[in-house]
Design brief:
This protein is an alpha/beta fold. Helix content is 36%, strand content 15%.
Length: 351
């Protein structure tokens, strides 16, 4: 899956090209603003929130599995996991197909030796329309790679096509695998993810299935284009689901490079969305981890007035979706060409 500019590059661009000075805590302070954002001390804790009706407490900042698998040096990837846990992060995201299994293998090695008990571990099943037996086989492989006998959360990956809900809920579909895995004690909770169209999420939620969580893009640009924040979060909260945010920087379109937003304000906005339990952040270097930790320590949410001001400021670039290309193209879909692998044939989204 092709990815755009890395988070490490975003950090470099933000500091060098967007007129920011880094504080001693690693956070960004706008040049020319003597007050800037209030930065907590380096020893402030990472807050935790309840993950919907699960009752589980998860850190407001989560560590993304795709970027972890992209770290060239496995020792550094493991160091990122350990430093994250020591700092108070307990939510770890992954997926069966990330880097052909390398992401799960690295995370599994990082959590060996007693670290697993400190982690809320989530991975995703990647059937993309195939049946429950494929899902259960993937689950067993994920458990082996991750070095554990159970997950805390197992989610359906990438509900991004308009017929995905029908495929997932068909007899002997992946939803039946979620039920079976939960009954067998191989996962505590279940959910689904997607980044394409809020209507697909709402269709998944309309089936009345007892999902525990739902994952979606939540950022300052989303509010103006096919918005998950406006359309899906309220329904997820009504059903008592844990809301997991992702793509806090937009995930595409280089919004930092374009000067639309600073890393700090983008991440703060994502973590401030009412109802969000955790925000998964792609972290591919220790510098990026430390930057994000500085933003999350002692976190206080933005006010609604601050959030609205940011939405209005980015509106000229956000309104046509150019900063959220994952909603408009297949370039960011792990299931590109799925018909070539025996998946049902699909059409491009009519955006």
């Amino acid at each position: 899956m092709t990815m755009p500019t890395t988070r490490r590059q975003f950090l470099s661009i933000t500091a060098a090209g967007a007129g920011v000075a880094l504080t001693s805590c690693g956070g960004a302070q706008a040049a020319g603003n003597p007050r800037g954002p209030v930065m907590p001390t380096a020893h402030a804790p990472i807050p935790r929130r309840v993950l919907g009706k699960t009752g589980a407490q998860v850190s407001i900042l989560g560590l993304g599995g795709w970027h972890l698998g992209a770290v060239p040096d496995e020792n550094e990837a493991i160091a990122i996991v350990h430093e994250a846990i020591d700092a108070g992060i307990n939510f770890f995201d992954d997926a069966w197909e990330y880097h052909d299994g390398r992401s799960e293998e690295i995370l599994g090695r990082a959590l060996a030796g007693g670290w697993r008990d400190k982690a809320f571990l989530m991975t995703k099943v990647c059937t993309h329309g195939r049946k429950a037996d494929v899902a259960m086989a993937q689950l067993e492989q994920s458990l082996r790679r991750l070095g554990t006998d159970h997950l805390d959360l197992w989610q359906i990956h990438e509900c991004i096509y308009y017929d995905d809900p029908e495929l997932h809920f068909q007899p002997d579909g992946v939803v039946e695998a979620l039920q079976k895995a939960k009954q067998q004690g191989k996962t505590r909770f279940v959910g689904f993810t997607g980044h394409k169209d809020p209507d697909i999420h709402l269709k998944m939620l309309s089936h009345g299935f007892p999902f525990d969580t739902v994952q979606m893009p939540l950022n300052a640009f989303d509010a103006s284009f096919h918005s998950f924040e406006r359309n899906v979060v309220p329904e997820a909260r009504r059903q008592g689901l844990g809301v997991i945010g992702m793509k806090s920087l937009g995930g595409a379109g280089d919004p930092v490079r374009q000067g639309a937003v600073l890393v700090e304000e983008a991440l703060r906005y994502a973590m401030s969305v009412p109802g969000v339990s955790t925000t998964v952040s792609g972290i591919d270097h220790l510098d990026v981890l430390r930057q994000n930790l500085a933003i999350a320590r002692g976190f206080q949410p933005m006010s609604e007035e601050e959030m609205q001001a940011l939405r209005e400021r980015v509106l000229p670039l956000a309104a046509d979706g150019r900063l959220e290309l994952y909603k408009m193209t297949k370039s960011f879909d792990a299931s590109v060409g799925r018909e070539q692998h025996g998946y049902p044939s699909q059409q491009e989204l009519p955006l």
